[in-house]
Write a structure and sequence with these properties.
It contains 16 helices and 15 strands. It is an alpha/beta fold. The chain has two domains: about 160 residues, Aspartate Aminotransferase, domain 1, CATH 3.90.1150; about 280 residues, 3-Layer(aba) Sandwich (Aspartate Aminotransferase, domain 2), CATH 3.40.640.10. The strands form three sheets. The chain has a seven-stranded mixed sheet with strand order 4-10-9-8-7-5-6, with helices on both faces. A four-stranded mixed sheet has the order 1-2-3-13. The protein has a four-stranded antiparallel sheet with strand order 11-12-15-14. The radius of gyration is 22 Å and the shape is globular. The model has no long low-confidence stretch (mean pLDDT about 95).
Length: about 450
C-alpha cells in the first residue's frame, strides 16, 4: 500500500487536506448493493449513497448492462449538430415523472451545471419576455448549490464561499427555515412562518423589477438537513407568482425518490418553475444532470433562428448517450421497484431506531424525509444547548463510524444518514447498531 500512499499525492480530493489524507488514504476497490470494499478487503456500509447519489444501489446490473450496450453503439454524439436516441428517450421518461407541466429538459453533466443553467435560463427568460432588468437571485444562507462561481455565489455556506470572494454580484440571501434553531428566535406555528413571508419583504426591498429567481433546496443539506414546515413552500410559491419571480427547486439531492416521493416538490406539494436534477438521476453510474421547466418558459425560447431567442447555453457532455442510457435505467429502476415508497418505509425504520436512542440524552432533533435523515446532537435536549465547538460531537461520531465500517455525513453538531434506497431492513439494523455504538462511545469521551 506504500506505493498507493505516494501516488495519491497526485490528487486533490473534495474539501479535505491531502497532507492528512495521504498518510492513511481510503481507496475503494469495489461495491455491491449497499456495501463498499476497500483495497485492503475491509467492507463499509454505505450510509450516504456515496454522497446522496447511488439510489439504486451499487453493482446494479440493469444500469451497467445499459451502459455497456450503449458503448457498443454510440459513445458520443456531436452536440452542435445532433442529439441521440438515448437523450430523446430520457427526456420522454423524465416527462412522465416530473410534476406539473415541467416537461421540457436541458440535459447536462451534473449538479453545478444544473443550478448554473437554471439561473441563466431565468435571466434569459425574463429578458425575452420584456423584463430585462430581472437578474438578481434570492437564495438561503447555509444552502449549497454547487462549486462553480455562479452556483457558489447563490450558496450560503460561509466556509465554502469566503475563500473565493468577491463572488459575482446579484445574489441576495435570506435565513433558512431552521425551526429547531429559529434565526428569528420564534417558535412554530406561532411564528406565522416568518422565514417564508419575509422573502416578500426582501424582494420588495431589492425591487421586484430586478429579481429573476428564488433558488432553494426542498430540504437543505449543508445546514443540517434543514426541513421546513409544511406551509413554507406554498407561501414561497405565492410570493414568486405575485412578483413574477421564477421558483427554482435545487433537487440534486432530493430528487428521484430520496424524500419518499419522486421529487421533493411532491413531498411538499408545490410545483416550482424549474427543477434542477443530478446525483440520483443516474445513481452515480455516469455523470449526468439536467433542468426541467414548464411550457410557458419553454415557449419563450422558440422562434425563428434569426430571432436569436434559443437558450444561449451549452455543455459538451450534456445529453451524452452513455450517461443518458445510465439515467434511463436508473430512473426506470426507481419507478418500477417503487423506490420512493421504499425510502419512506426504510426511513421510518431508521427513525424508530433513533427514537430508541433518545435515552442517550444527546439527540436534540431528527429532521428530513424518506431516506434523507439529519440528527442534531445537543448537550441538553431540554435547553437545546450545544456541545462546545471544539468537542465536534457529530464529527467524532462520523470518524468512529468510518473506522467501524459505516460511511455517513458528519459536521460538528449533526450527522446525516442517507443510504441507497434499495437498503434492506437487516442492513438498516446493521447501520443503526454501528451508529448507536459510535454515539455511546463519543458521549463517554466528551462527558
Amino acid at each position: 500500500m506504500g506505493e498507493t500512499n505516494k501516488e495519491v499525492e497526485h490528487l486533490f480530493l473534495d474539501f479535505m487536506q491531502m497532507k492528512d489524507f495521504a498518510k492513511d488514504p481510503l481507496v475503494m476497490k469495489s461495491a455491491q448493493g449497499v456495501w463498499y470494499e476497500d483495497v485492503h478487503g475491509k467492507r463499509y456500509l454505505d450510509g450516504l449513497s456515496g454522497v446522496f447519489v447511488v439510489n439504486v444501489g451499487h453493482g446494479n446490473r440493469r444500469v451497467i448492462d445499459a451502459m455497456k450496450q450503449q458503448l457498443d453503439e454510440l459513445a458520443f454524439a456531436p452536440p452542435l449538430h445532433a442529439t441521440n436516441m438515448r437523450a430523446i428517450e430520457l427526456a420522454a421518461l423524465l416527462a412522465k415523472v416530473t410534476p406539473g407541466d415541467l416537461h421540457t429538459f436541458k440535459l447536462l453533466s451534473g449538479g453545478s451545471e444544473a443550478t448554473e443553467s437554471a439561473m441563466k435560463l431565468a435571466r434569459q427568460y425574463h429578458r425575452q419576455t420584456g423584463h430585462p432588468q430581472k437578474y438578481k437571485v434570492v437564495s438561503r444562507y447555509e444552502g449549497y448549490h454547487g462549486a462553480t462561481l455562479g452556483a457558489l455565489a447563490a450558496s450560503g455556506v460561509t466556509k465554502r464561499r469566503s475563500t473565493f470572494e468577491p463572488l459575482p454580484g446579484g445574489y441576495v440571501h435570506v435565513f433558512p427555515p431552521t425551526c429547531y434553531r429559529c434565526p428569528y428566535g420564534l417558535k412554530y406555528p406561532e411564528c406565522g412562518v416568518l422565514c417564508a413571508s419575509i422573502v416578500e419583504s426582501v424582494i420588495k426591498q431589492e425591487d421586484p423589477a430586478t429579481v429573476s429567481s428564488l433558488i432553494v433546496e426542498p430540504i437543505g443539506n449543508t445546514g443540517g438537513i434543514v426541513t421546513p414546515p409544511k406551509e413554507y413552500y406554498k407561501i414561497l410559491r405565492e410570493i414568486c407568482d405575485k412578483y413574477d419571480v421564477l421558483l427554482i427547486f435545487d433537487e440534486i439531492i432530493t430528487g428521484f425518490g430520496r424524500t419518499g416521493e419522486m421529487f421533493g416538490a411532491g413531498t411538499f406539494g408545490v410545483t416550482p418553475d424549474i427543477i434542477c436534477m443530478g446525483k440520483g438521476m443516474s445513481s452515480g453510474y455516469s455523470p449526468v444532470g439536467g433542468i426541467a421547466f414548464g411550457d410557458e418558459i419553454a415557449e419563450a425560447f422558440y422562434g425563428e433562428a434569426s430571432a436569436g431567442v434559443h437558450f444561449n447555453h451549452g455543455h459538451t457532455f450534456g445529453g451524452n448517450p452513455v450517461s443518458s442510457a445510465a439515467a434511463i435505467a436508473s430512473v426506470s429502476e426507481t419507478v418500477e421497484r417503487k423506490l420512493p415508497a421504499r425510502a419512506r418505509e426504510m426511513g421510518d425504520a431508521v427513525r424508530r431506531r433513533l427514537r430508541e436512542m433518545e435515552g442517550e440524552g444527546v439527540i436534540g432533533d431528527v429532521r428530513g424525509a424518506g431516506l434523507l435523515i439529519g440528527v442534531e446532537f445537543v448537550k441538553d435536549p431540554e435547553t437545546k444547548e450545544q456541545f462546545p465547538e471544539g468537542a465536534a460531537f457529530g464529527a467524532r461520531v462520523g470518524r468512529k463510524a468510518l473506522k467501524k465500517g459505516l460511511i455517513i455525513r458528519s459536521d460538528p453538531h449533526w450527522v446525516a444518514l442517507a443510504p441507497p434506497l434499495v437498503i434492506e431492513k437487516g442492513e438498516v439494523d446493521t447501520m443503526m447498531d454501528i451508529f448507536s455504538e459510535c454515539v455511546s462511545e463519543t458521549l463517554k469521551e466528551v462527558s
